[in-house]
Amino acid sequence: MMRFADLFSTAGVHPDRLLGDASLEGMVADSRKASPGCLFVCMPSPSGDTHRFLDDARERGAVAALTHTDAGCERAWDLGMAAALVRHEGKTFAEALARLCKAFFGDPSGRLRLVGVTGTNGKTTTAWVMRDALEALGVPSAYLGTLGYKTGEGKLTLENTTPFAVELNQCLADAVASGIQGFVMEVSSHALEERRADGLEFDAAIFTNLTQDHLDYHGTMEAYEAAKWRLFSDLPATAGKPFRAAIDADDPVGARWLERIDHPAVSYGVQSGSLRGKPLRVTVESIQMELSFGERVVPVQVGLGGLFNVQNTLAVAAGLLALGYSLDDAATALRAAKPVPGRFEPVRNDLGIGVIVDYAHTPDALEKLLDAVRALEPRRVITVFGCGGDRDRTKRPKMARVVSERSDLSVVTSDNPRTEDPHRILGDVVAGLAQGSEAVTIVDRKEAIFEALRRAQPGDVVVIAGKGHEDYQIIGRTKFPMDDRKIAREALEALA
After folding, report:
1. How many angstroms separate the CA atoms of 484 and 465, rounded?
2. Could you give the 3-state DSSP secondary structure of residue 133?
């Protein structure tokens, strides 16, 4: 229980207006989740004025509102709610909300061993395996990111890789209440730019790499990098905990960051870094490698396939070292790692055809994925892929070139077309195919997967890229059921 007016003084936030007072029993940013006694936060949104949800929140029992316009503040007061105004100017509202959430939920991140993972590729695998590793070391832990929210009790789906501040702090508070001690979360560039994770007390953060993605949002690679860098600069600078980083020294951006970071950092890589990894044997389902740190060298086997997962394994090991664990602890923990849904996930069959479903949807991720498949020395590589609609168009021909140069047959199809014309998207993709490469274009994704597997022969590997764990396809603004893994099994059964 907390009084509305007291919340602002506790958080050190000075609202532009403060009308009335109320006793608060909860805090939400979705009017559909409002309950008696709660504070409703009207989040600024480019898609519309969220103050229109004040009536709904009030009907469900909200007693106070945080608003960002004078009109919104007046509307909340007219509805009989206590109201505060923090104008949406620059980052003012987001920064105020971060402090309010921290105060209202009792600083939950400060009571957890919190690890953030950011980068273009490898975030999900690294964060997922990091949670498994902490569990293996006796630390009850949770994962939050692209795959949802997962503890040892199960998994829930989330709308965003990194939720907005209210939902995120509620999740952290629930984790503390349920006995969770370790919390590993993906921290997206959107979340960092929008200050969703500001105010969180990170013990460590892991950087995987930086390649082209999300330029539709950030505009330039420089802005994209600057957003990621905040996790290693701005956030720890305002935190009360000691902070350590784990940074990929093989990545050019990571190498630059290691020279400028103001906090202790563990560098890692195959070619560079204080923690080195040497792959000995890599298959579809496992990696055998050596880890070396200082004078110590230890062997480790991880239940993840593909050469690119060597780097993800190293990222986890470096994160554990940053948290203060020994190299032996890291090796022991990595042996307990489990496969990550939709990441180099094999679809097993008795036809002698390798089938791999993977989330890769950037030029760099596809390059690493297909190079890892080629390293397995298959007879042929057949790749099914597409590009998302309403997203960065400049990467479409680049993805096509990467796939066509590394595949014996490219099957170009739809990903999540969203509100774009699928034929236009495929036109952008086809323009980038390497001259002379073999390719077919099939708009319907299910038909494309069936055709790829129909053409496959024993010894071939069929890669189905782009959607991974997703069990839906977004056409227009609607999510339709679709799971690449399920479709692949259906196609394989039809061939048996």
Report:
1. 9
2. helix
Concatenated DSSP letters of 202-233: -SEEEE----S--HHHHSSHHHHHHHHHGGGT
For position 215, what pLDDT does the model report?
Answer: 62
Phi and psi for 137 in degrees, rounded to 5? -90, 10
Number of structural domains, the chain? 3
Query: Are 321 and 358 members of one domain?
Result: no
> Structural domain of residue 408, as residue ranges?
345-495
Same domain, 164 and 77: no
State mean pLDDT over 399-419: 98
Q: Please state, in angstroms and rounded to a whole number, the distance separating the CA atoms of residues 293 and 318.
A: 10
Sign, CA torsion 296/298/302/308: positive
In which element (H, E) is residue 102 found?
Answer: helix 92-104
341 touches 368 (CB < 8 A): no
Same domain, 406 and 438: yes
With beta carbons less than 8 A apart as the criterion, state whether 248 and 209 touch.
yes
Structural domain contains residue 246: yes
Residue where a domain stops, chosen among 104, 129, 150: 104
Q: Which two tokens stand for residue 216?
A: 């539709």
Tokens (6 digits) for 458: 């024993």
d(CA 307, CA 375): 8
Confidence of residue 157 (pLDDT cuts 50, 70, 90): confident
Could you tell me the two tokens for 454?
């129909």
What CA–CA distance (Å, rounded) separates 496 from 323? 49
Judge if 122 and 93 occupy the same domain. no
pTM of the full structure: 0.85
Strand partners, 67: 85
Residue 339 inside a domain? The answer is: no
Integer CA distances (angstroms), 30 to 38, 90, 169, in order: 11, 22, 14
